[in-house]
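Why should sequence recovery work at all? Because a backbone constrains its sequence more than one might expect. Tight turns favour small or flexible residues, buried strands favour hydrophobic ones, and helices have their own preferences. The token representation captures these environments compactly. In the example below, the structure is given first.
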């Protein structure tokens, strides 16, 4: 649809918005049909494969890649999150006036790239979707962003491109190490279904070794993948592109960036890196946990020092993605399940937080925390949504954030008991909860209570519109629903986690 819109004359302005809305609603309907037929006990649902391209290399066999897509317990929740957030991004962008043809075309192309990344089971196909997201995001930030949009878009592009190069080098090493058992003429394969099977590892390949330390091919391959996906996550100290991109991006793009694009970093580790290189993952677990801990504390400290509300939310995302790394490093069912739950929960909460910042900015064109006071007196429904989002992000019981963080901490303490990493990492990580409560409660007290004050004036603080209720209510309801009934999501996550851990342990053995 994004490509079709390029041939529509620009004078038909309403066509662009309606086309994006139709795509969003259609995706929501298709996802509902997917859930209705989804069988969590089966490893893959809707598996589709078709030849993409093939190049004859003579004695080297063939270079072949496939269009191979499917969903399982990991990707179904992320696809559902994508469908919801992308639809709300369309609603949030309804009043975009500048170069609307380019905006809506790029937004729809970004839509396809995100969902393609979560469904691809061919490493090269995944890389194409992953890399192609750079193009629309670069222009969406660089053209429709804030005053420093050029700097932010270039920084985002360079960081992500560097990560993509690391991932591509890892993909090449993996490709050269595995064979396709169904096609003897094809020497190597990008098919993740074959790559996760150790029986398809070629004896003369770079990865055929029992050594997973830093000096080995397996160790270096893991680090290449980890660096690439850690930039996308992002993990400290590879995070510096994120606050600038968030602050300068328009609201809808900040929502997509926080709720979806960051999750592709965690998804890549879960889908490709840990199943293919489990021994290296176990060897580097203390380091991965350490990076997660650093992200938790450093992100929270920067959020606590932030004066810009959008920057505060951006740094809170860095902190919460640190919890994902901690759960993944634990290698336990609680930790891995909590990491997946945290990714989806944070997607809902961060989308709501950035939409709320956008609601306030649309009225006052001011995001400085110190410029507001007593907003609860004049904007009661808005304040209610803010409290829901803040308490959910703090991990208060009754909200989805609580479930993911509790599972991650259970996994971290069990990993410490098993000797995977030190107990001090699990204990120190709990301070992230205290810091999170500190910066959120400080913001609530400063902006929403006390005597009323707004530097932009009282007349701008009009009530929430119907469009804004449509954006915020689904996210608030989903956050509460997954906090009260976590089994709605764990029903899909648990079979994936069990299969992941069985495969993980058997491969490391």
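From this structural description, the recovered sequence reads:
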């Amino acid at each position: 649809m994004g490509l079709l819109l390029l041939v529509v004359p620009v004078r038909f302005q309403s066509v662009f918005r309606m086309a994006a809305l139709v795509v969003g609603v259609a995706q929501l309907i298709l996802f509902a049909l997917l859930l209705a037929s989804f069988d969590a006990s089966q490893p893959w649902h809707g598996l589709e494969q078709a030849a993409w391209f093939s190049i004859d290399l003579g004695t080297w066999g063939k270079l072949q890649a496939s269009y191979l897509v499917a969903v399982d317990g990991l990707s179904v929740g992320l696809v559902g999150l994508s469908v919801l957030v992308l639809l709300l991004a369309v609603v949030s962008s309804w009043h975009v006036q500048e170069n609307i043809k380019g905006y809506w075309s790029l937004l729809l192309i970004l839509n396809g790239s995100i969902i393609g990344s979560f469904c691809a089971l061919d490493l090269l196909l995944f890389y194409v979707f992953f890399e192609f997201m750079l193009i629309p995001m670069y222009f969406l930030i660089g053209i429709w962003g804030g005053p420093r949009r050029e700097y932010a878009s270039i920084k985002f592009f360079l960081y992500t491109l560097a990560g993509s190069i690391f991932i591509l080098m890892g993909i090449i090493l993996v490709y050269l190490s595995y064979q396709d058992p169904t096609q003897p003429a094809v020497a190597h394969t990008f098919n993740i279904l074959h790559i996760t099977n150790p029986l398809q590892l070629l004896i003369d390949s770079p990865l055929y070794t029992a050594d997973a330390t830093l000096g080995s091919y397996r160790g270096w391959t893991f680090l290449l993948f980890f660096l690439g996906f850690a930039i996308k996550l992002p993990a400290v100290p590879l995070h510096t592109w994120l606050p600038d991109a968030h602050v300068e991006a328009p609201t809808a793009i900040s929502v997509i960036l926080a709720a979806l694009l960051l999750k592709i970093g965690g998804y890549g580790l879960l889908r490709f890196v840990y199943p293919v290189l489990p021994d290296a993952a176990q060897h580097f677990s203390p380091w991965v946990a350490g990076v997660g801990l650093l992200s938790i504390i450093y992100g929270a400290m920067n959020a606590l020092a932030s004066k810009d509300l959008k920057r505060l939310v951006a740094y809170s995302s860095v902190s919460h993605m640190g919890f994902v790394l901690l759960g993944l490093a634990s290698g336990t069912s609680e930790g891995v399940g909590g990491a997946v739950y945290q990714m989806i929960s944070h997607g809902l909460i961060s989308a709501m937080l950035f939409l709320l910042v956008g609601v306030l900015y649309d009225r006052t064109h001011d995001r400085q925390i110190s410029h507001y006071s007593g907003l609860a007196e004049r904007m009661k429904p808005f304040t209610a949504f803010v409290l829901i989002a803040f308490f959910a992000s703090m991990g208060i019981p009754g909200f989805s954030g609580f479930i993911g963080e509790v599972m991650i901490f259970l996994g971290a303490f069990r990993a410490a008991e098993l000797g995977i990493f030190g107990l001090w990492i699990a204990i120190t990580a709990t301070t992230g909860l205290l810091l999170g409560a500190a910066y959120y409660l400080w913001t609530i007290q400063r902006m929403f209570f006390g005597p009323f004050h707004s530097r932009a004036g009282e007349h701008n603080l009009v009530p929430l519109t119907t469009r804004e209720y449509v954006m915020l209510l689904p996210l608030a309801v989903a956050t509460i629903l997954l906090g009260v009934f976590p089994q709605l999501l764990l029903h899909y996550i648990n079979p994936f986690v069990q299969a992941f851990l069985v495969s993980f342990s058997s491969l490391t053995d």
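A few observations help interpret the result. The mean pLDDT is 90.
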